């Protein structure tokens, strides 16, 4: 069922096991899989482990200031009786949301399963404990990269907001800043990004399409 997406009726015919028996067996099997594989999904426990992931993104993917790639997947379900539109998503299906964060080596760093499908991506993230942990300062401060928007240096990362290593290790001035975690993002009643969010996106676009672009990226887009 987990691998094929088949429903209980088709599995019942295929394995010649009653649907009632399958409904008891599947949760037990899922628990066993979780217990066996739990060690392979380890959420970073401190800022040093987050920092190691960030260094991997910079080294292997030429992506500074990144501690993970996050996305969600709608898992289609049959809505419980009298659930109404609680699980009804924008694809006109009933679903649960699987949200996952992966590190620079494609390994899961964090997963959140079970949010009802009608919730937006931002809502799913806002309601998970990863969001709370990041806002409480778990993420290393120097991975909050600040980019220039001024003149010819629009594609350069401010050197004082990162450590550098060119023959010798040089600490950036970010280490002298007070550690206050991430700035809370206010909740909006609309889907349009803020001006600040748009500026950050454009800064990153300039950075990755400018002097820091890699030779193969245009070929991969087309």
Automatic annotation (TrEMBL):
<dbReference type="Pfam" id="PF13359">
    <property type="entry name" value="DDE_Tnp_4"/>
</dbReference>
<keyword id="KW-0479">Metal-binding</keyword>
<dbReference type="InterPro" id="IPR027806">
    <property type="entry name" value="HARBI1_dom"/>
</dbReference>
<protein>
    <recommendedName>
        <fullName>FHA domain-containing protein</fullName>
    </recommendedName>
</protein>
<feature type="domain" description="FHA">
    <location>
        <begin position="117"/>
        <end position="175"/>
    </location>
</feature>
<dbReference type="GO" id="GO:0046872">
    <property type="term" value="F:metal ion binding"/>
</dbReference>
<dbReference type="InterPro" id="IPR000253">
    <property type="entry name" value="FHA_dom"/>
</dbReference>
């Amino acid at each position: 069922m987990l691998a094929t997406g088949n429903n209980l009726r088709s599995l019942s015919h295929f394995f010649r096991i009653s649907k009632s028996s399958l409904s008891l067996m599947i949760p037990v099997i899922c628990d066993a899989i979780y217990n066996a594989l739990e060690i392979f999904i380890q959420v970073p426990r401190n800022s040093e482990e987050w920092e190691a992931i960030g260094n991997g993104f910079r080294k292997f993917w030429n992506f500074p200031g990144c501690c993970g790639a996050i996305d969600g997947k709608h898992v289609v379900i049959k809505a419980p009786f009298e659930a109404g539109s609680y699980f009804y998503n924008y694809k006109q299906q009933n679903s649960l949301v699987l949200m996952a964060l992966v590190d620079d080596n494609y390994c899961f760093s964090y997963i959140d399963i079970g949010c009802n499908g009608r919730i937006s991506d931002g809502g799913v993230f806002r309601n998970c404990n990863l969001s709370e942990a990041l806002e409480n300062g778990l993420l290393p401060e120097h991975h909050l990269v600040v980019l220039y928007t001024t003149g010819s240096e629009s594609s350069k990362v401010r050197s004082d907001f990162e450590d550098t290593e060119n023959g010798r290790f040089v600490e950036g001035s970010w280490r002298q800043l007070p550690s206050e975690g991430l700035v809370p993002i206010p909740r909006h009643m609309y889907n349009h990004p803020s001006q600040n969010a748009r500026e950050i996106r454009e800064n990153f676009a300039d950075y990755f399409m400018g002097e820091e672009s890699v030779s193969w990226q245009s070929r991969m887009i087309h």
